[in-house]
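Notes for week 9. Today we move from apo structures to complexes. The key idea is that a small molecule is not decoration. When we ask for a structure prediction with adenosine-5'-diphosphate present, the ligand SMILES becomes part of the input, just like the chain. The input block below holds both the sequence and the ligand string. Read it once before you look at the output, and try to guess where the molecule might sit.
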Amino acid sequence: MKVAKFGGSSVADSIQLKKVGEIIKKDPKRKFIVVSAPGKRNKDDFKITDILIRLGNAFLNNDAFEEHFSTVIQRFREIIEGLELDTSILSEIEQSIYTVLNANYSNEMKMDAIKAIGEDSTAKILSAYLNSLGLQASYVNPKNAGMLVSNEPGNAQILPESFSKIYALREEDGILIIPGFFGYTEDGQLMTFSRGGSDISGSIIAAGIKAELYENFTDVDSVYSVNPNIVDHPKEIKTLTYREMRELSYAGFSVFHDEALIPAFKEQIPVCIKNTNNPECPGTLIVSEKAPDEKCVVGIASDTGFCSLYVSKYLMNREVGFGRKLLNILEDEGISFEHAPSGIDDISIIIREKRLTSEKENIIIERIRNELHADTVSLQRDLAMVMIVGEGLVRTIGLAKKATVAIADANVNIEMINQGSSEVSMMFGIQSKDLNRAIQSLYSAYFE
Ligand SMILES: Nc1ncnc2c1ncn2[C@@H]1O[C@H](COP(=O)(O)OP(=O)(O)O)[C@@H](O)[C@H]1O
Ligand SMILES: N[C@@H](CC(=O)OP(=O)(O)O)C(=O)O
């Protein structure tokens, strides 16, 4: 049995959904189907989830929300008409939006319930469409599928007891269509994963039913060695290990959510990234082990939106508990950190900028000065991280030299280096404005 997840680009309109129907029809092992909400149909288009968020914000702020409502309904109407389905589904979608808006939830929970309407409606539409093709398919709500999650709006985590419940789905007849992106808490409240989280749902279902394969259908033929939006026609990657993909997706390969690998990895389910627009192409396979590659670097990932909190204090290395107290301050303010390269008298804490508002920044800097008596505390924003990834990194001489030379050739200054404890990656912090230049130069050095 296989799990096939279709991302936003694969369900963006009725033409795409017809391709999805063909793909499901072609392989009877594709019994578990997870869908996203309609994504962008072209570069300048919008994602339904983004419009639903605007709708939710407008409603919660007592602003006019009708325009967003019509945009959502119009998009689903086009899909339903394009698939020649009964328009009663559209009334059901309209009704579900009103029900959520008028429900007696907290604002955060209401927002999650609004966001989930994109996936939920798409699953209902696909199920009806497959039935119209003569296939036996049914919509399964994540609550009935057994997707139990933590109570963290917009950032839910799966609870371990879900997996055995999901296993029972194997006994159900026909093709099961499950909306991605959300689950339910133990007390029945809808909760979404973080953005892009339908990949996580697919992986959870794959792990739960112990699938032979988790196919993740998107709009590219494979995972490329670098973001194709930065380098034209980059080299395709045929096989990756879970560890490599986890590092690459964490560091910016948005083609697969970085939290989505863990459930599949734990059950050793192979993951295949495939193209809905070219399903015969073999795609990229993600497995636990692969034959040693001649090329020890498989990919170069990058992401912007980081900042570095620099703290220095003479004899920091001798002060017992300094690191704990520093991280405690971040914990008190509810801020997680990404990396923490350190020296004798100083430490830099790398944080995602979106987590550190200027208000939080002032509080944290004041507290570090007053409570830890630091000599210097400063914050550098607009940083980008570049991650060079490959299983062979640990045993190959000269890879760091190659990277630093390539970055220097691009006339880019390195703000931070973090080889860290990971055996499969090497990280460089640079200024965001220099990112594309650095990546293009690194790509030439490692792959051309
Ligand atoms: N290294 C990479 N390899 C392939 N695609 C990448 C990579 N890095 C970023 N992407 C982007 O990821 C996109 C697919 O992810 P996403 O938009 O989330 O798809 P979906 O709509 O299927 O959920 C591609 O169109 C591509 O622009
Ligand atoms: N629709 C949700 C979840 C998701 O996974 O979407 P996509 O498959 O388009 O990345 C989002 O936009 O966050």
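The first strand starts at residue 2 and ends at 6.
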